[in-house]
Each structure stands twice: as C-alpha cells, then as structure tokens.
Design a protein that fits this description.
The chain is mostly helical. Helix content is about 75%, strand content about 0%. The protein is elongated and about 145 Å long.
C-alpha cells in the first residue's frame, strides 16, 4: 500500500528518493573517509616503527664505538702499567741502588780498618721468661689481631 501511495504522489516520491539518495551518499562518503584515514594511518605507523628501530640501531652502533675506544684505552693503560712496573723493578734492584750510592753519593765499601767489632755479654738473669697466657690473655690477643685487619 505504501508503494501505491508513492505512485499517486510523484512529487513526494521524488523528494523521498532524493533524501534517501543523500543519506546513502553521505553514508558512503563517511565510509570512504574512514577508509582513507585507515589507509593513511597504516603507513604512518610503519614509518614510526621503522624510525624507532633505526634509532635503536644507531644507539647500538654508538655504544659499540664507545666500547671499542674504551678497549683501546684499556690496552694502552695496561702497556703503560707494564712499563711502570718494569721501571720500578729496575729502580728497586740492589745493583741499581749500589751504583747510585757509589756514583751519586760517593759511598764506598768499608775497608778492614774501618770495621769495628763489638762483643756483647748476655746475662741469663736479664732475659725475661715467657709468660703463660691465660684464657683472657689469649682472647684479648686474638681480638687485637682481628681488629688489626680492619
């Protein structure tokens, strides 16, 4: 019956058809705008993820370069340490000390007439006997040894 009424009123029928067409066009336009927005957002998301990954690789590369520089510096410092230890051993050697004493300080070994021998008489009464430590003495001795470590 509704269809027959539309046939009897052609002007109203045209207006209703025009409104339905507008609604359908508006709906299609909204669907296309959502589709366009979705189509544009996907590449933007991929671009953002790609840039994030690229920045992480750049950070990894800079850390690797810093690590390489630190390793080179470590090798140089180890060489310098070895040189300093060798120099210290050379300076500490008794041969070097003897040469420096003779050349720089003018020292010589003593001759026989410069050596003086002293005899010491030890009286057995002056030597103190060993004390026997009591439990408290042993404990205080152990405690003092432990405290000396700190």
């Amino acid at each position: 019956m509704l269809a027959r009424e539309f046939n009897y009123y052609p002007e109203e029928n045209r207006e209703i058809q025009k409104k339905t067409r507008e609604k359908v066009a508006k709906k299609n336009k909204e669907n296309y705008s959502i589709l366009k927005l979705f189509a544009l957002s996907i590449p933007c998301i991929f671009l953002g993820i790609s840039l994030l990954i690229l920045s992480r690789y750049a950070k990894i590369t800079s850390i690797r370069q810093e690590l390489t520089q630190l390793e080179k510096q470590k090798v140089e410092l180890e060489k310098e340490k070895m040189n300093l230890v060798a120099e210290l051993e050379r300076i500490k050697s008794s041969v070097k000390i003897e040469e420096d004493a003779i050349t720089k300080l003018g020292m010589n070994y003593p001759t026989e007439d410069q050596i003086v021998y002293i005899t010491v008489n030890v009286d057995e009464n002056t030597i103190e006997p060993k004390e026997e430590l009591t439990f408290v003495g042993k404990l205080s001795r152990i405690l003092s040894m432990v405290l000396n470590f700190f």
